[in-house]
Amino acid sequence: MKLRAAGTVAVVDDEPSLRETVGFALRREGFPVETFADGVDAWNAFERQLPGLVVLDILMPRMDGLELCRRLRQRSETLPILFLSSRDEELDRVLGLELGADDYLCKPFSMRELVARVRVLFRRSAMLATPVGETETRFVVGPLVLDPQRYQAKLGDRPVSLTVTEFLMLQALARHPGHVKTRRQLMEQGYAHDAYVSDRTIDSHIKRLRRKLAQVDSGFDAIETVYGLGYRFRES
């Protein structure tokens, strides 16, 4: 598989009018755009070369957005993925975030909001790829090592593959061991724009974060649930 086509946005949606509108809005802002009518066509193209970012509908024929997201995450943990979802598909949005999507927009949405979120996700992706020098700032909490400049995490010397949103939430918890972070506070840390996401969405991110940490170290369980309040990182 080839490296990503830097800066290219892939729009995957079975609604022709939405593909056209989103594609026009992104091209007007200078983004190269590829469009696909369903998940199978998109996956066939992505197997040859990943785009720079994917805007992905959930309900589509032949292969839905959840399955396409799952396959993409097997290829790349850092590829930015933005879900599009109808307002009555809360369960599907949560499932998508558990599979590793970085963000979602509810239909109908403004093109200005879509472009703003795409820019944020590209900035995050660029930070991941930017080399830093010997003076890089890292911090260590027990066996956990976080590198905020690269958005990278390790348990001991073993890397933990996180999306940027997951990293930001883990960082918010780990910087202040013993302090309770409400779901609202974690939402503000994990999303760089004025988006509202539900408590269930935050819970989905934490569930996936715990699972990834446990896959690297089955004994690591430092993220505690504080019932009725939120979450905290256990003090050493």
> Tell me, what is the CATH class of the largest domain?
Alpha Beta
Helical/strand content category: alpha/beta
Strand percentage lies at 25-35%
- N-to-C series of helices and strands: EHEHEHEHEHEEEEHEHHEE
Indicate the low-confidence ranges by residue numbers. Answer: none
Shape: elongated
Please report the distance between the alpha carbons of the first and last residues: 43 Å
Instruction: Report the strand count.
Output: 12
Strand order of the largest sheet: 2-1-3-4-5
Q: What is the number of helices?
A: 8
Helical amount: 40-55%
Q: What is the architecture of the largest domain at the second tier of CATH?
A: 3-Layer(aba) Sandwich
Number of domains: 2
Largest sheet: 5 strands, parallel
Looking at CATH, the homologous superfamily of the largest domain is Response regulator
Radius of gyration of CA atoms, rounded to a whole number: 18 Å
Description:
With 236 residues, this protein is of the alpha/beta class. The chain folds into 2 domains: 2-129, Rossmann fold (3-Layer(aba) Sandwich); 139-233, Arc Repressor Mutant, subunit A. 42% of the residues lie in helices and 25% in strands. The chain has helices spanning 16-28, 39-48, 65-75, 90-99, 111-129, 164-174, 183-190, 199-216, and strands spanning 2-12, 33-36, 49-57, 81-86, 103-107, 139-141, 144-147, 152-155, 158-160, 180-182, 223-226, 230-233. It has a 5-stranded parallel sheet, sandwiched between helices. A 4-stranded antiparallel sheet has the order 6-7-8-9, with helices on one face. A 3-stranded antiparallel sheet has the order 10-12-11. Helix 3 packs parallel to helix 4 (90-99) and helix 6 packs across helix 7 (183-190). The longest helix is centred in the middle third of the chain and has 19 residues, at 111-129. The termini are far apart.
